[in-house]
Amino acid sequence: MNPNYYVILAGVLFAIGIVGFLVRKNALVLFMSVELMLNACNLLLVSFSRVHGNLDGQVASFFVMVVAAAEVVVGLSIIVMIYRARHSASVDNENLLRY
Amino acid sequence: MTALLVPLVTGEAVAYWICAPIMVLAALGMVLFRKAVYSALSLALVMVNLAIIYASQDAPFLFVVQIIVYTGAVMMLFLFVVMLVGVDTRESLVEKIKGHTVASVLAAVGAFILLAATVGGSLVTGAVGVGAANTTYGGNVQGLAALLFGKYVFAFEATAALLITAAVGAMVLAHGERLAPKLDQKARARMRIEDYVTKGIHPGPRPSSGVYARHNSITAPALLPDGTVAQDSVSSVLVQRSGMADPESLGAPTKKAFAALETAQGADEEEL
Amino acid sequence: MTLLEGLTPVAPTGLFPLAWLMIAIPLVSAGLLLVLGKVANSFGHYVATLAPIASFVVAVALFADLLGRPEAQRAVSVPLYTWIKTGSWTIDVGLLIDPLSILFALLVTGVGSLIHVYSIGYMAHDPGRRRFFAYLNLFIAAMLVLVLSNNYAVLFVGWEGVGLASYLLISFWQHKPTAATAGKKAFVVNRVGDLGMTMAIFTMLAMFGSSSFEAVNAGASKMSPFWVTLLGLLLLLGACGKSAQVPLQSWLLDAMEGPTPVSALIHAATMVTAGVYLVVRSHAVYAETSAAALAVAIVGTVTLLAGAWIGTSKDDIKKVLAGSTMSQIGYMMLAAGIGPVAYPFAIFHLLTHGFFKANMFLGAGSVMHGMNDDVNMRHYGGLSKVMPITYYTFLMGYLAIIGTPFFSGFYSKDSIIESAYEQQPVLGALALIAAGITAFYMTRLMFMTFWSRKRWQEGVHPHESPAVMWVPLVLLAIPSVVAGMVMNAWIGSWLAPAVNGEVPPNATWLPHITVIGVITLAVVILGVVVAWLVFGRTSIPESVPYTRNVFTIAGRHDLYGDAFNEAVFMRPGEALTRGIVAVDTGVVDGAVRGSGALTVGLGGGLRKLQNGYVRSYGLTMVVGVIVVGLALVIGRLV
Predict the structure, then answer these.
(1) A22 to C622: CB separation less than 8 angstroms, yes or no
(2) Which of B50, B128, B174 sits opposite A43 (nearest CB)?
(3) Which fold has domain A4-88?
(4) Domain limits of chain B?
(5) Cis (ω within 30 of 0) for the bond into C127?
(6) Which pTM was predicted?
């Protein structure tokens, strides 16, 4: 199968992730968009490991997963704390650093 | 005959062409659903499909890890937090920043083009396939392990440290347990009286500063019934800084006025 | 007639090394009076009067020495010090005492001393008297620098010095706006002439490497025709400015705002003749270019007619005399432009004019003194009985100027008209006609001031002036009468070697009878008769009469000289200034302010990026990533 198809698919997922990150106001959905982008990168890594014929890409993908998990842990606890303080999970509320 | 029945497409292609549309639709759904729970579930669907594609690309270990770690742990974590934060909240779709949606879509399209052009354009040859790599060490998992503990062992150690730090940090951040029972009003009142009995700290409020005929400064002390100064009436900080005002001089105008009144009264009485 | 080479200067001997005293004494006196301030108020004018008298004594001594020398040794060069020495140019400060410059020195110091004495009386009641005398001394010093220097650069120093003194003295009564404006006008118009002078000096420096008279005299014959003509025209421009010739004549009539001694000294006898001195000194240049010489002659002719025209229509006695000055200098310029044959006549007329014009100006001052400083001749009348000394001295000057036989003006002016008619008949004819007009307006002045019945205003009691004022009048009237007879025989041969001129033949004290001379006399008598018919027989109106005579109207408006200057130079200049100011505020200031406004606007626009929303910043980040990626790809780094 032509690896280009996977590149296109990963690109589409990445772009959708970007749109979601920029458009949604709920902090959690923002975070989920970031996860989507990470997954798209994972897909690319795996596809290219297949192209090159070695497992380095898969190892990298593994590491990405681990780091993403750690990041989710910390990020979600922060969101929880923010929610406890402000009783709202909208990122638009923190707009005090404006002109 | 048998040749005719052999399918001309590989399983990988089938997997791709089934999973890819579902993935794209689910991703779009994640972005567009107004309820956070729906978004989370859509993302989970994307991840499962991704796992299938990994499997079709001769990465069985990743297939399993994707489902267990990513979908099973990370997405469930998301769902827990969504339910904590507000499972029923419907996000409004009104965009307050002007032109932001159009700009975001354009940016995304730009990123896609960049990615596709550069990454896709760099592919010169076709896929080699990891079949050979998989059998080097007798299996995909063994091959990954060899790399992980061989070439990338330092990265592995660092990532492990990262995980521990993240877990500890999450615990610290989210921990909200009380270590002691919360004091209610009754308990507090009892504490106050106990302090008065044992330490002599007065349970009531402190006396306020004195008010004189021509001065109401907070450095003016209040006088006790016997004429001495009440030490608690002026803040200790003020006492240290500028000292207490002298009650004699503060009360002098009043005394003078009274004296004048008395002489006048005496004069009046004499007249009478 | 023999053409002689110019005199080669000899080294100074005898009294000549002290010639610089002539300049130093008045200069030091001026400085002293200005520096000492009020302390010198009581004695300053006496010190200042002694200074030009001392210079006159030195000048007489030097003149006597020169008279005793043989003709070839009459030019003495007195080098003083080196002023500028750069590269190939050297400008030394030095004096050249030769027949021409000693005559000028005598005129300046002699007439100057008499006018100083006169001013003691005239300015007796003026609080700024000390300052006045200081400026007068400054003028004497600068004028002497001008006539005694041996190169054009130092001459220019004196040139500028007299311009400064003229400005200071015209606007002496600074509180009067008219006086201040007149001073400025004189200075500015002179500046135009100075432009010509400086360009001429630059040309000399470029061509000869030096501006000394010797270098120019030697090098003039080697210049190309274009350059020598240009040099002549530039010198003419300078001379026009200083001598109030057309087209730079507008300042002279306004300069009468100054005190009368100033008008007498500066604007009659000495400063305005500096232009003639310049032209005659540059005889070597004008000998090479007939075009420039003709230009000089034409300028002189136009001016002598214009001055006479203006003089016929003015009611201010000083302005009539100023117009007359302009006209007589026109005669001198005409003579200088005619060529070597008339150079001596130009200087001769300059000297006689110095005497009779100063005489008449001082007489006018005396009249004004007696009439409470009123200058309007329509308020005069019948003064011959009341101020006899003034009247008789003025009469001498009047007879001299109109060219009465045996009086000084007759010899000089007639010689000019004759030689002009010989060389350029048209110009000669015009000069002849102007002689008649001169007679006309001078007779008009005499009628209006001295001979008609009284038209005095209320409270005016004319009386004779004090001795300190009429003694100089008498001392000036004597040369007005006899100077012509005395000098006619001698001045041609005296001056000719110095200016490369031709010795006029048959020069004696007797008048030289020629056809032109007789016609001139007839025209003069005609002018006097016409004036008697117009002004003598009918009474003179006390206020300016309405007239439809275009000539009179033009004369009253100074031949529209001011209007012309205003229209051609002032208004376009003003418009240009306004345009430049507009460009400055609009373009230059606008650019500066615009760049400031641009920065402010840009800042105001850019700060809207900081709207506090995380998602906007996220968008900025994504865009940045795309840009960086593009840069990497295009730079072939990826």
Answers:
(1) yes
(2) B50
(3) Helix Hairpins (1.10.287)
(4) 8-88, 207-262
(5) no
(6) 0.65
